[in-house]
Amino acid sequence: MTDGEFFFFNGHPGALEIYTALTERMERELGAYSVRTQKTQISFSNRCGFAFVSFLPVRRAKDRPKDYITVTFGLGRRADSPRIDAVSEPYPGRWTHHVLLASPEEADGELMAFLREAYTFAAEKRRR
Question: Distance between CA 31 and CA 26 in Å, rounded?
Fold first, then answer.
């Protein structure tokens, strides 16, 4: 983990454990990718961005846990899962999904299946 990633979690120390669980699974289960830390999000890219971590409030304040991260990923289809908090289609055939993670255990097989699909979708995006 880089200094930028640690700095991103200043003010959100409880969310760092969730992020660490997510990135450890990503490192084990995905191919090569780069990480870019910005002021409002951490981006994961291969050819293009495939996943993003932020504190985007995808749920109303009363429904959000104290510690959380929002994982955003893009797919070539609209995924259906009760865990997906918000979905939009910013471009035809490109769907953006937001999932709020409130514990390290939520970086599970279902989420990783979505991220593997997003990883492949981003890698092939310019080839289409």
Answer: 8
| pLDDT tens-digit readout, 23-59 | 999 999 999 999 999 999 999 999 899 999 999 999 8
Domain ranges of the chain: 3-127
82 Cβ partners below 8 Å, 6+ apart? none
CATH number for 3-127 (one of 3.90.1150.30, 3.40.50.150, 3.40.50.1000, 3.30.70.260): it is 3.90.1150.30
Q: What is the CA radius of gyration of the chain?
A: 14
On the 0-12 / 13-18 / 19+ scale of CB atoms within 10 A, 28 is exposed
* E runs forming strands in the chain: 34-37, 41-45, 49-54, 69-75, 84-91, 94-101
